């Protein structure tokens, strides 16, 4: 039973998480976003969930008129719960009493509509609605519970086990065990989420029944408990038993939530085989089904992974929630296996998906994060909820608005993903200005990373000499620690004591990157990265009237740093208009060379509608 | 008023269609398929529509129990109507009395549920159902009418104006005019189809009110009469007025049906501007948004056109119905403008989409026609209706089964698309063994095209000397007519008289084709065509254990004819497995060269599950 404020709390594992009251982010890239979360994102989400009527759904349910008034999709309840989770973490982090009171207000509203037997939903089983548990494919009843339970986990871990939401979630969890336990209603939810929530609730409460239920839900998949649908049972990971899958398939958020759950269950039950299976699926997804941004999901239609190496940049879906799901999985694997190089995947997804999703003012979000925009986006109006996941500049709110609250709960707990306890000291996994104070070890980290490569670590306390472990990113060939070469991977500095100063230098010169030959859609292109940041060309930086679609670059030219990005020589191609685009020798004239500015991908689309591309065709 | 058996009957235009009782296909590539249609496809469709319950829907509607029993999607009625249209054309072509009786039986069943005021639908407005005309976005009520009316048009033109379905359709059309005329309920249908049907019904009946109604429906689009949806109003061509669009957008079948209607209305009303607009949109779609197969539609999600040059082969949708829609548009433009080079687009879509869709035994169909299959397809069981448009080997039936009946009606009328009357003679647009006898001109065409390049045309009758116009396909550099060079485009042979023999020779050596530099997804690849056939590599022809994903070819090597396809030197690449697919210099070893057999794309997936690709990466 683990009640300190950590986003994930395994009872065992090679590494141990550090509570977010023991590690604090002191400004910088992530500190600014954490503050933006408190000041803007969370209030924005509450405003929109109220405006969209998703909060009011609970009131109408209490009044018995929900069938006339319900707003939002079948999973709208979950967005309220996910917001409460974000608020709970933020209230715990910042000791914000108002936020705390708001959580209790929302919790009381939710509690009021919970049934005697624990059932809770605004979309089923109320007067005039379809009966409960009649649509496991799309109903999301268990999915909704999952996010409710995770809100309760956040409350317990931030010292508010007495919160009304914990009471509600406990009754829900008990109801789930009674209803869906072994020998009872042996079903599963189309959208995995209840599994990871129950595993974490078992950790938070010490009640093993919840862990067992999570395990049952995982092992039941792949036995045709859900209907075949247009996109196949792989859409909801029901095409084969979990243990048989070699790689992540189907709806990417579902796949990643399920994998998180499998790791949690494996760790708690000591199921080495299950851990290895989850690791295999994720590792294979990283190697063959992940965009350079760390984004996952190649299909818009079913928000799903494609086949191996099916990674079209212009149709990349890369849902923000999948980026967060990838962080969830990688962090769990890092703790369980002790392999801190999973921090590479976390870093990539955080800087290039999570940070990209959020507008600079915290009032807009990308739901999907494309790698190539061929036409300037329509401008999202600040007060209009949009029906589209894939359009517009960052939009304030979506009909399906899972991403903003997912970003909010991630930012609120971000410090918890930066470092971990090792048996012999501390491992720094991500580099940000932080103050750490755990088990007698004190560290002060100062850095302007990712914009500058120096990371200065001062040891402010050490009860005894310890080992400081550093992640050297795979891209960081030429890194040094205290002036000595540090190969990409893991760097251990032994016998560290109070007063020591350690300087890590990560090389931030821009780098040309080429794709595996099997990725068809980006053959003949290069990308440029700088540190952990993927760069992109945005048409606002190109000559007047030019889109990125006519851009070619010369990878043999000088690639040099420029602002936070880079500059590479390139040119504009001119293709004669023809009435058919396939020929023995189609024409394309390459114009004069000019400097092509490349900017961090996360910063794109903050300067008005533009075209953009990450992968740059070679002249 | 035009009642001879032509699939499209403009009252004016540069060229005139030839009725299918005046031009007969004598076997060969298309003759075999026309026979397959009569023997297998039409009976197959009737069997499945019965089995799926879509026919029975009318019976349950009559019984007042449809709300309990209805099967199929909201547009299931249309599939019954489209089958009746196919049966009507086939009954007219073959004088099949049994087929004729079956049509009347189905017609009587439909008539029985038509309301007093003409309204007709099994999915709305019956006891227990949603009221009529309450869902123009998705309800498909007018779309269903469209296909009903087209069935009636087929009956009228094949001499059965007394058919019960003509009576039903007339009452429907009158109801539509009354309900949706100027100043009445000024709405439009989310799925265009009623427009082209009404325009053709006006031609078949001589009643101008139907033409006017078609015109109204077209001009109403683009004024937000339909709701904004996840995919935007462009999905159903309601994002801008029809006349403002520069290129086809949105759901490709909808766009093509609407364009067909616009051409019909333009021709009948002498609206030169509207004709030019429709032509512009289609021409631009051909130049920028069409696959090498003639397929249209790059998005699975919304079955839609993508942006210009967004043509991913592995996510090509290329719905069979869109291929047919493209034939409908190109044929109309050909007649209206006299530009027989639109026959190029027709030829491409017929050989590479329509012919590809249909299994050799006529018992299975592709709904979408991908250009790259990375993993072997699952086998579709012969007796299982599949929920997926994009999976399996050709499947016997789909939850959405618009394609098989669309193929059936196209095959039944195919002769009508092969030639046209010019002011001074006859133009041959497609080459197939045919017997033609129109207005005193008789032709006997003998050829094994597209497998052999010789087309022998014997003039069997000529009331007076006439001009024989031949389409020389754009790909046919080196073609000859009677031994003399014939440039791609239009070839006119003047003073042709009875007894003349003309030999057209089309060069059928395989050709390498490269894409426009702006098509990102196929940069660094080539394709091979032979005559009108696009070729592809299929893994059943590759060395044991190899998929097309490891294939590269050497376009500088000898490309030679082989069977109906070709052979090109190629090799297998070996890529070292890595944990991340992006690097400064990813490895890829090219193995030994071997001969890569390429087969006609339309023939693929007839030899069991396989991987396949049209665009071949260059080593």
From TrEMBL, chains A, B:
Domain (Non-reducing end beta-L-arabinofuranosidase-like GH127 C-terminal) ranges: 510-617
InterPro entries listed in its UniProt record: 6-hairpin_glycosidase_sf, Beta-AFase-like, Beta-AFase-like_GH127_C, Beta-AFase-like_GH127_cat, Beta-AFase-like_GH127_middle
GO biological process, one term: carbohydrate metabolic process
Non-reducing end beta-L-arabinofuranosidase-like GH127 middle domain residues: 427-485
Molecular-function GO terms, alphabetical: hydrolase activity
Keywords, sorted A to Z: Hydrolase
Stretches assigned to the Non-reducing end beta-L-arabinofuranosidase-like GH127 catalytic domain: 27-414
Keyword set includes Hydrolase: yes
Lineage: superkingdom: Bacteria
Name of the protein this chain belongs to: Glycoside hydrolase family 127 protein
């Amino acid at each position: 039973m683990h009640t300190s404020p950590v986003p994930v709390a395994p009872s065992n594992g090679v590494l141990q998480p550090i509570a977010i009251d023991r590690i604090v982010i002191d400004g910088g890239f992530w500190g600014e976003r954490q503050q933006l979360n408190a000041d803007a994102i969370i209030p924005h989400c509450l405003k929109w969930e109220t405006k969209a009527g998703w909060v009011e759904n609970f009131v109408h349910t209490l009044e018995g008129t929900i069938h006339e008034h319900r707003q939002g999709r079948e999973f709208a309840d979950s967005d309220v719960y996910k917001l409460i989770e974000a608020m709970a973490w933020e209230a715990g982090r910042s000791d914000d009493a108002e936020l705390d009171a708001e959580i209790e207000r929302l919790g009381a509203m939710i509690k009021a509509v919970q049934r005697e037997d624990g059932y809770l939903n605004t979309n089923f089983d109320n007067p005039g609605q379809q009966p409960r548990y009649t649509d496991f494919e799309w109903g999301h009843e268990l999915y909704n519970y999952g996010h409710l339970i995770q809100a309760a986990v956040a409350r317990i871990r931030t010292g508010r086990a007495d919160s009304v939401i914990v009471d509600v979630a406990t009754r829900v969890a008990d109801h789930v065990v009674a209803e869906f336990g072994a020998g009872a209603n042996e079903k599963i939810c189309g959208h995995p989420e209840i599994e990871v929530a129950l595993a974490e609730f078992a950790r938070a409460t010490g009640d093993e029944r919840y862990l067992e239920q999570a395990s049952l839900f995982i092992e039941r998949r792949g036995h045709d408990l859900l209907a075949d649908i247009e996109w196949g049972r792989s859409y909801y990971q029901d095409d084969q038993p979990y243990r048989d899958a070699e790689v992540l398939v189907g709806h990417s958020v579902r796949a990643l939530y399920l994998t998180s759950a499998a790791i949690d269950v494996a760790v708690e039950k000591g199921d080495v085989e299950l851990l290895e299976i989850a690791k295999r699926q994720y590792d294979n997804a990283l190697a063959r089904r992940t965009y350079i941004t760390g984004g996952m999901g190649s299909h818009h239609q079913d928000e799903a992974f494609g086949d191996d190496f099916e990674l079209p940049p212009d149709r990349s879906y890369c849902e923000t929630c999948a980026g967060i799901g990838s962080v969830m999985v990688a962090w769990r694997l890092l703790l369980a296996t002790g392999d801190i190089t999973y921090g590479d995947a976390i870093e990539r997804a955080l800087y290039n998906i999570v940070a990209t999703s959020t507008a600079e003012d915290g009032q807009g979000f990308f739901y999907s994060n494309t790698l190539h925009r061929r036409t300037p986006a329509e401008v999202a109006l600040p007060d209009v909820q949009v029906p589209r996941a894939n359009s517009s500049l960052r939009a304030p709110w979506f009909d399906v608005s899972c991403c903003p609250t997912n970003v909010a709960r991630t930012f609120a707990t971000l410090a918890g993903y930066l470092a971990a306890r090792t048996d012999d000291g501390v491992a720094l996994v991500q580099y940000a200005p932080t103050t750490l104070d755990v088990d007698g070890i004190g560290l002060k980290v100062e850095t302007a990373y990712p914009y500058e490569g120096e990371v200065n670590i001062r040891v402010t306390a050490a009860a005894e000499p310890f080992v400081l472990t550093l992640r050297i990113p795979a891209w960081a060939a030429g890194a040094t620690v205290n002036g000595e070469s540090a190969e990409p991977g893991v760097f251990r500095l032994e016998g560290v004591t109070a007063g020591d100063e350690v300087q890590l230098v990560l090389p931030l010169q821009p780098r040309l990157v080429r794709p595996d030959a099997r990725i068809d859609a980006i053959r003949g292109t290069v990308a440029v990265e700088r540190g952990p940041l993927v760069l992109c060309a945005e048409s606002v930086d190109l000559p007047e009237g030019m889109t990125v679609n006519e851009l070619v670059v010369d990878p043999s030219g000088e690639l040099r740093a420029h602002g936070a990005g880079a500059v590479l020589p390139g040119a504009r191609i001119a293709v004669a208009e023809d009435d058919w685009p396939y020929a023995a020798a189609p024409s394309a004239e390459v114009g004069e060379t000019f400097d092509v500015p490349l900017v961090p991908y996360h910063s794109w689309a903050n300067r008005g509608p533009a075209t953009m591309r990450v992968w740059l065709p070679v002249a």
